[in-house]
Amino acid sequence: MNIRVLGCHGSQLPSYNTTSFLLGQNVLVDAGTITTVLSLEEQLKIDYILVTHAHLDHVRDLTFITDNICYQRRKKQLIIISTKGIIEAIHRHLFNNVIWPDFSRLPSAKSPVIKFRIIKPGKKQTIDNLCITAVDLHHVVETVGYVIESGGKTVIFMGDTGPTEEAWQIAKKTKGLRAIFIETSLPDAMKDIAAKTGHLTPLSLETELKKLQSIKPDIYLYHMKPNYHEAIRKEIAAIKDREVHIIEDGQTIKI
Ligand SMILES: [Zn+2]
Ligand SMILES: [Zn+2]
Predict the structure, then answer these.
(1) Cα–chain-centroid distance for residue 245?
(2) Ligand 1 centroid vs 75 CA: distance in angstroms?
(3) Beta partners for 125?
């Protein structure tokens, strides 16, 4: 599984993009950064976008990719996948004909640019050559992570989350688990605001990782607030018994 990091941050500054991972050529996890990084040709190859939650740093480029697809007159629909509450939030608050045109009914209701696909946490789905399962997380809005299996190798993308339980229970039971992508948004000095906004700091990440007990997949860290990237990096160095990789925009990770 090739994972290209289009963006891995929890906000934006020059050279720091918001969250989006490209799996192979046609599947995205989140849509924070697509159209400023991928060529038009690459954008037109995208078939599925799995969305972790409706916050703007994860859905922003749903707007521009749908616009590009529409005016390139691509016939194949772009499938946007998530849980019912998350899909409803995206439809009601983004594709609402105020903030952006409702591309689930354009250019025509019969043949629109996007199709929303609602999935239930815990229920396995097949998309392309991937087997995916959504997992509930604990953020300030409805949020899921995704367990993604391909060719016997499994990766878990945890979306934005504070301390959580179920996802770790699932991770422990997952066969062939190679890697977990997990957030750490703020340094420990900001633990109070991190708790209020449903995010992790290096210390709370360390506590969370203990829930994996003896299971030791590679840990890929993302969603740092750009201004605190270096402070987080220093604090993460104190976690000794885990392989923790802090990822960068533009990187490709082979699992
Ligand atoms: Zn976020
Ligand atoms: Zn969020």
Answers:
(1) 17
(2) 31
(3) 132
Domain 2-247 has CATH 3.60.15.10: yes
Residue identified by tokens 């859905």 is 59
Which residue from 247, 208, 200, 202 is spatially nearest to 4, judged by alpha carbons? 247
Query: Each residue of 115-171: pLDDT tens digit?
Result: 999 999 999 999 999 999 999 999 999 999 999 999 999 999 999 999 999 999 999
% of residues, the chain, pLDDT over 70: 100
Residue pair 145/164 in contact (Cβ under 8 Å)? The answer is no
Is-above-0.90 flag for pTM?
Answer: yes
Indicate which ligand has the atom closest to the C-alpha of 18: 1
Ligand 2 ion: residues within 5 Å (CB): 55, 160
What is the whole-number distance in angstroms between the Cα of residue 186 and the centre of ligand 2?
13
Tell me the CA–centroid distance for residue 162 and ligand 2, in Å: 10
Domain ranges of the chain: 2-247
Distance from the alpha carbon of residue 177 to the mean position of ligand 2, in angstroms: 25
Q: How far apart are CA 178 and CA 255, in angstroms?
A: 7
pLDDT digits (tens, 9 = 90+) for 187-206: 999 999 999 999 999 999 99
Residue 149 CA, ligand 1 centroid: distance in Å:
23
CA distance 52 to 49: 10
Cα–Cα distance, 65 to 36 (Å, whole number):
10
